Amino acid sequence: MNLKKKSNIFILLAILAMVLAVGAIFYVKGQSEVVASVNGQKITKTELYNLMVKQSGSQALDSLIAEKIVDLEAKKQNIAVSDQEIQTELNGYYESYGGQDVFFQALTSSGFTLDDVKKDIALSLKIRKLMEPRIAISDDDLKAYFEENKASFAQEKQVKVSHILVDTQEKATEIKNRLASGEDFAKLAQENSTDTATRDSGGVLGFIRKGEMVEEFDEAAFSLKVGQISDPVKTEFGYHLIKAEEIKEAQEANFEQSKPQIFEAVFEQQVEAEYNAWIEEMYQQYKIENFLANK
């Protein structure tokens, strides 16, 4: 999976949502033309529409035109995207964001829905399938990419951790004693942790690398063995009990082991390059009327 592509998913969704919002602002009937006022000075929705079109309207409309071309070409070539393909890509998003709960938090804060994401995934998969016949990747291409990006294919030591966060050392010590007597870590996290982002999942934070967490947490997490639970660890957020669930030891970059990831990265690069050329060709083949250009 291309993590850069995933991190940018909400940017594309924002562009598409913006153009829909522009249309909604301008065309909704039965509402006042005034959208705001300052000391009685009115701002109309026409002024707002014109400003939004001037700032980003062209980019948003180009995105919608390109999306329409992709859909039409996919139908012409009998290219379809299955629900299973979309779910597989979605699972990759969950993993890259550090878990399904974290992904949905990002989704909620961005103002988009799961259907928005699925629609974007379907579009990306159609583009991949349309571009695939235009792409040829040799072993030399893979080796060249590996040599240029070798550091990114080395694996740092990673620890999969869960934690329980509480406000006081006394509370942390009490829970530590309950854990020592055999109580379940996940259940105690659900009942006691003040970290609302991980509480419902039993405190699972997922895999972390050195330097990703605050120093005190980091030091404690990377000193644990699998299954071991730390003593209370004080950070600026409170007191943590940290459990090491799994450890991935550091590994040097290995071409053969990394080959699937290398192929995917090279393929994504070539898809992007081919798509830019392809969409230009399609613009010449389709009758496109841009009425926004005249406004």
Q: What distinguishing features does this structure have?
A:
58% helix; extended; 6 strands; two-stranded antiparallel ribbon; alpha+beta; 12 helices; 295 residues; four-stranded antiparallel beta sheet
**What's the shape?**
extended
- Spatial strand order of the main sheet: 4-3-6-5
Number of helical regions: 12
Please report the distance between the alpha carbons of the first and last residues.
41 Å
User: How would you spell out the order of helices and strands?
Assistant: HHEEHHHHHHEHHEHEEH
| Radius of gyration (Å) | 25 Å
What portion of residues is helical? 55-70%
**Number of E-state strands:** 6
Strand content: 5-15%
Largest sheet: 4 strands, antiparallel
Give the overall average pLDDT. 85
Poorly predicted runs are 1-11, 24-31
Report on the structure:
The protein is α+β, with helices and mostly antiparallel strands. Helices cover 58% and strands 13% of the residues. It contains 12 helices and 6 strands. The protein has helices at 3-7, 9-27, 45-76, 83-96, 100-110, 114-131, 139-148, 150-153, 169-180, 185-192, 215-221, 255-285, and strands at 34-38, 41-44, 158-166, 204-209, 233-235, 238-248. The strands form 2 sheets. A 4-stranded antiparallel sheet has the order 4-3-6-5, with helices on both faces. A two-stranded antiparallel sheet has the order 1-2. A hairpin with a 2-residue loop joins strand 1 (34-38) and strand 2. Helix 4 (83-96) packs across helix 5, helix 4 (83-96) crosses helix 6 (114-131) and helix 7 (139-148) crosses helix 12 (255-285). It is extended and about 75 Å long. The model is unreliable at 1-11 and 24-31 (pLDDT under 50).
